[in-house]
């Protein structure tokens, strides 16, 4: 949908070297594109280590994004995050 297209546009802008503010990149759910990407990988069953390797970032960076995503979605667990993502569509 439109959210996916917006996220793709943000990714392309970033790949082209443009800085895109997190607030502009955030969707209606309040997650940044990276937070949403990591949350979706959690929903797929990936561990923090797997996510870090896949995205070429540190495990600590994954943990930071997850902490912020948990707060924004109002959840306290990976299962809660998966359920919240299901409600977002």
Automatic annotation (TrEMBL):
One of its GO terms (biological process) is regulation of DNA-templated transcription. This is Helix-turn-helix transcriptional regulator. Keywords: DNA-binding, Transcription, Transcription regulation. SUPFAM superfamilies: C-terminal effector domain of the bipartite response regulators. The keyword DNA-binding applies. InterPro entries: Sig_transdc_resp-reg_C-effctor, Tscrpt_reg_LuxR_C, WH-like_DNA-bd_sf. One of its GO terms (molecular function) is DNA binding. SMART domains: HTH_LUXR (SM00421). Pfam families: GerE. Residues 24-89 form the HTH luxR-type domain. PROSITE patterns: HTH_LUXR_1, HTH_LUXR_2.
């Amino acid at each position: 949908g439109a959210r996916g297209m917006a996220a793709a546009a943000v990714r392309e802008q970033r790949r082209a070297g443009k800085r895109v503010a997190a607030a502009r990149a955030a969707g209606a759910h309040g997650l940044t594109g990276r937070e949403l990407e990591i949350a979706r990988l959690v929903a797929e069953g990936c561990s923090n280590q797997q996510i870090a390797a896949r995205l070429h970032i540190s495990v600590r960076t994954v943990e930071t994004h997850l902490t912020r995503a948990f707060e924004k979605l109002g959840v306290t667990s990976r299962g809660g995050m998966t359920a919240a993502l299901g409600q977002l569509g």
